[in-house]
Amino acid sequence: MTLPAAAESLPAIPERVPVGFARSWARRLGLVAESKPALIGAGIVLAWVLAAVLAPLIAPYPPNANNLAALAHPTPSASHWLGTDHLGRDLLSRILWGRGRC
User: Fold this and answer.
1) Quick count: other Cβ atoms within 10 Å of Cβ 94?
2) Largest CA distance in the chain
3) Which of 15, 85, 89, 95 sits in a 20 to 30 Å window from 26, CA-based?
4) What is the pTM for the complete model shown?
């Protein structure tokens, strides 16, 4: 039979320390970093965000510029990587700028 321990000799139970905003985000990012599909998804999203932010620098043409000569061959070519639409506008530029069907 064991003797009851005195309250002074028991180890103190630490109170729960509130987790700060930065620490909770760091924990969530750590969980994402451990998941391969999450990293791939985050990489794809980051690539699209960077493409949209850098659109003025990397788009080969203005998004609404018409190239009537490209109407004869709207398929992808060296000058229009994704081709052109029915109005002769470059599709790559329109995708980067976020201009839809209008």
Assistant:
1) 23
2) 98
3) 15
4) 0.59
